[in-house]
Structures are given as structure tokens and as C-alpha cells.
Design a protein that fits this description.
Blueprint (H helix, E strand, L loop, with lengths): L1 H44 L5 H11 L5 H8 L1 H21 L3 H29 L3 H22 L11 H21 L17
Helix pairs in contact: 1-4, 1-5, 1-6, 1-7, 3-4, 4-5, 4-7
Length: 202
Amino acid sequence: MYSVAFRWLYRNSLYEAVFLALTVVLGLQVLRVLLTGLVFYIRESLDAGSFVPGAYVLLLFLLAFLAARMFRALGRRRALVLTAGGLALVRLVEQLVPWPVVDLGLTTLGTAFFLLFIPTYIGHLRDNRLGGGHTFATGLLLGIGADTAIKGVFATLDLSWQPGVLTHVIVIFLVGCHLLLLGRVTRKESFEATSSFQLWCP
């Protein structure tokens, strides 16, 4: 019995960790493009002071505090689909759009999704007893490692600024794998709204 339970937990925790890793890769890519846009578009092109990008980022990061309210209103499944799925779609569209102002809007939206996803996903792990902090830490480290490896292959230049079909194919592959894993992760989640939300992983 314990062996079966261990295999079930290991298999599901592995899927969860890989899913989180892909989410982290997409989130970090979007975040770097956003920061570049704030520096080179808002500050340099629009000649805005340093206060404007700083206030922009601060207000954006404060959105993470709305995660609990969103979690309760939408339920676990809808909240995960909205945040993780929204991030993936934003990353895909951002890769194909060449205009800086549109890039800034898309990466702002993608970063908001990523920030809301993190506490929502921790709540998902806790409620489903999927390894909690161990799974989250594993996925986070895998994601950072994969992101670093991708940057290393492309000489530290983000995929967003790499021209050519190859980079588009890589992004489409990453987004496709991410959405497939999102479907598996949320398969058994309820659509019902919930009043329970705790940012804690045992």
C-alpha cells in the first residue's frame, strides 16, 4: 500500500515539478523583456524619469496580493488556467510581435499572470498534497536551470530578440508542452469557487 502511494506521489509530483519549471522559464523570459522595455522604451524613448519605471514595477508586483481573492472567486482550476494559460499565450504572442509598445503591454500582462500564478500554485500543491514545498522548490530550481541553459545556448540573448524560424519553433514547443501539462495538472481540480486559501506548503 505504501509502495503504491509513494509511486503515485512521485509520478504526480514529477509532472507538477516539470510544469512549474516550464512556467518559470516562460515567466522569467517575459519578466526580462518587461524590464528592458521599461528602461529602453519608457525611460529612454519617452524620456520619462527613473520614478516612472520604478512606480510601474511596484504597482505591478502589488498585484500578487490579489491572488487570494482571485483564488476564492474563481476556484483552483479556473485560477490556474487563467494565470498559467494566460502566461503561455502572452509569451507566444509576444514572440511574434515586433512593436515595442505592444511588447510592453504584453509583458506587463504576462508578468501579472506570473505573479498571480505563484501563490495560486502553492495553494494548489498544498490542497492536493502533492509534495508541497519539495515539489515547488524542485520545479523552481529546474526552471531557473532550464532558463539559464537556454540563454547560454543563445549567447545570453533572450529568445524574444532572436530572429528566425528556430526561435519561433522553440517557443511554440515550450508553450505547447506547458499547455499540455496544464491540462494534466488541472484535470482533477474543481471548477467550484472556494473560500480556502493558504500560502503555505507543508
